[in-house]
Amino acid sequence: MNTNTFYFFITFCVVFILYLIYFLIRKYIRFRKTVVEQESLLEEVADLNNQVADLMNEKESILAMKVSQLGLKPGEDDTVNIDDKKDEKELIISVKVIPNYEEIEKIHGKDLTEEQVYNIIWEKIKGVNKKLTSYKAIKNLEIKHDEFEKTTTMKIKRYAELKKDKN
Predict the structure, then answer these.
(1) pLDDT tens for each residue of 5-31
(2) pLDDT tens column, 117-141
(3) Angle ∠(113,115,117) on CA atoms, nearest 5
(4) Is there a contact between 132 and 161 (Cβ–Cβ < 8 Å)?
(5) The pairing of beta strand 138-143 with beta strand 93-97
(6) What is the 3-class SS of the chain, one letter each residue?
(7) Strands (E), 21-137
(8) Are the C-beta atoms of residues 96 and 161 closer than 8 Å to each other?
């Protein structure tokens, strides 16, 4: 064997060993990074579990407050005696109507007074009420002359209408 070949072979072996060391170090760093990421993820999951437990406790305390606002104590029987509720106001179902005067005039003639229009609509409501149970029946009618306040999707803003009624 020639000395040049021997040096070439030694150089090749050293380069190969350095190459293997490089890849082993790289692989170890990747493995270590994965282990560190897994540990940090486990810590984060533990923190999230603690937060969920805290939120559940907070929810339970809020529910307990809500129950106490209803006049009940947590764990108490939640049945209500009907005689105790006689002093409360009865729920009255009301309806606001914007009459279609053109249709009413076609069917019932022209020159109708507001009272006649009210009576015509009330008769229709009575027909509907016959099909309903008494607690679902409409008990109040209000004729509205202006348009309802609406959202951009053309739905009636019920809370805005209720606010107008209170004012």
Answers:
(1) 888 888 999 999 999 999 999 988 888
(2) 899 999 989 998 898 888 788 888 8
(3) 70
(4) no
(5) parallel
(6) CCHHHHHHHHHHHHHHHHHHHHHHHHHHHHHHHHHHHHHHHHHHHHHHHHHHHHHHHHHHHHHHHHHHHCCCCCCCCCCCCHHHHCCCCCCCEEEEECCCHHHHHHHHCCCCCHHHHHHHHHHHHHHHHCCCCHHHCEEEEEECCCCCCECCCCCECHHHHHHHHHC
(7) 93-97
(8) yes
pTM of the model: 0.44
Q: Which two tokens stand for residue 107?
A: 């069917």
- Report d(CA 4, CA 64) in Å as an integer: 89
Q: For residues 54 and 62, is the Cβ–Cβ distance under 8 A?
A: no
Task: Give the C-alpha separation, 52 to 65, whole Å.
Answer: 20
Determine the average pLDDT of the residues in 77-99: 65
pLDDT of 156 higher than 90:
no
Q: What is the pLDDT of residue 1?
A: 58
